[in-house]
Design a protein that fits this description.
Helix content: over 70%
Shape: globular
Radius of gyration: 21 Å
């Protein structure tokens, strides 16, 4: 009963923590597409301002691997819970301070400089958050590890729903002019409220039993990953890369593209809110399927279908079918690639370096989400949207090849018990945890 209670608390904490982290992180993404080019880069040509805005958006993703290594190191040495309290606090404070930043018109270059600095702090925070949140669920789980771990990933689109709704609601309440002057700050300032709620829930979760039972603590988790698991790390990055490229294409680049194509901004935000809400269901459903079918088949099917869908995405938007494009892309196909990653990355590494290895692999893959909008904005200007579709398909092909090169991980025990049943995360040798051979 106690283990079940802790599993529920761990999953709830991981989900809420992910919602809060991605509310803050993706609030910036939405704002970078619709606000920041006017507030912080107002002296630039509109297209150049959009690219510069996406550039500051990308800095957060560039900082994520650093956060993964930093918090992964101490998470493998000191425990998952302590690091998660720290990452959540960093994110909440950084987002609150973004809401207080002066504009370019007020202080000149200091405004975008402060924006970049706080974006880096956001990136470091979310880079450390994901790995610990996933492991809190995966290492507490006694079955259906793919489903329980995926609640962390499901928090991302839920955070997108909240961030988009916050911006949309504020704009509707105060009007366009007031929104650009000061209204955009309100969703960022609300971060402190979410932080208080998240910390209250997180403090009730105990350290994972898998970590507590680990007797062999390496003093250098990063070196262990790089020295003993370089191939696994690189393949893991390749598996996740297209999911992130597709994610930012569907949630960030399409916002700017749709506005330039003549779709009202509010219509795009409404479609994004709907598709993000449905994506929560898609992530949980496909992750549960990966417990039965295996991680590889689900990810492979998603990558192939996304590669094909990339060629229909922009024609759908051009013809005003933005809702269909985002629902199919973000809520159906993308979750196939993205949902199982939480359990998959956890299953690739041993307990002593799992936080570091899983975080680093995931966050290096996440660079695709930060760089894709910046790359695609330039590609669109020179070669058109068809070239973007081919680039997306190439990333999906990379995922297919790397997934085929990896072993199936869904039967892996997080304690190294080779006789563990599929999806088990139980402690080997603990009372009542005997399982049948897989």
């Amino acid at each position: 009963m106690a283990s079940t209670t802790q599993l529920r608390r761990a999953v709830t904490s991981s989900f809420l923590g992910s919602v809060i982290e991605y509310y803050d992180f993706l609030l910036y993404a939405t704002a970078s597409a619709v606000v920041f080019n006017k507030v912080f880069f107002s002296s630039l040509d509109p297209l150049v301002g959009t690219i510069a805005s996406f550039g500051t958006f990308a800095t957060g993703y560039l900082a994520r691997p650093l956060g993964g290594v930093l918090f992964g190191h101490f998470g493998d040495l000191l425990g998952r819970k302590k690091m998660l309290v720290l990452t959540m606090s960093l994110m909440g404070v950084a987002s609150f301070l973004i809401g207080l930043l002066p504009t370019y018109a007020q202080v000149g270059w200091l405004a975008p400089a402060g924006l970049v600095l706080l974006r880096v702090v956001q990136g470091i925070s979310v880079g450390g958050e994901w790995g610990g949140a996933v492991l809190m669920s995966a290492e507490h789980a006694t079955s259906r590890r793919g489903l329980w771990a995926s609640f962390t990933n499901a928090g991302a689109p839920c955070g997108m729903v909240l961030s988009t709704a916050a911006l949309t609601g504020t704009a509707a309440l105060v009007g366009e002019q007031a929104f650009l002057q000061w209204g955009w700050r309100v969703p960022f300032l609300l971060s402190l409220v979410l932080l208080a709620v998240g910390l209250f829930v997180r403090m009730k979760v105990e350290e994972t039993p898998v970590f507590q039972a680990e007797r062999k603590r390496t003093s250098a988790p990063l070196m262990d990953v790089l020295r003993h698991h370089p191939r696994t790390l690189l393949l893991g990055v390749g598996v996740g890369l297209s999911a992130f490229v597709a994610q930012s294409t569907l949630t960030t680049f399409i916002l700017a593209y749709g506005v330039h194509a003549g779709t009202p901004r509010q219509s795009i935000l409404n479609a994004l809110t709907l598709s993000s809400a449905l994506a929560v269901i898609g992530i949980l459903a496909w992750s549960a399927a990966s417990d039965r079918l295996g991680r590889r088949p689900v990810v492979l099917a998603g990558a192939v279908l996304m590669a094909a869908f990339g060629f229909a995405l922009f024609p759908l938007v051009d013809n005003g079918l933005i809702v269909l494009a985002l629902v199919v892309g973000q809520a159906v196909l993308h979750p196939m690639m993205y949902g199982p990653l939480a359990a998959l990355y956890s299953e690739l590494f041993s307990t002593g370096s799992r936080y570091t290895g899983a975080s680093l692999g995931y966050q290096l893959a996440g660079l695709g989400a930060g760089l894709a909008p910046l790359l695609f904005a330039q590609v669109q200007a020179s070669a058109g949207t068809t070239a973007i579709s081919f680039i997306l398909a190439a990333f999906c092909l990379l995922t297919v090849l790397c997934t085929l090169a990896l072993r199936e991980t869904s039967r892996t025990s997080l304690t190294g018990d080779l006789s563990a049943e599929r999806g088990t995360g139980q402690l080997a040798g603990s009372p009542g945890t005997d399982v049948a051979p897989a």
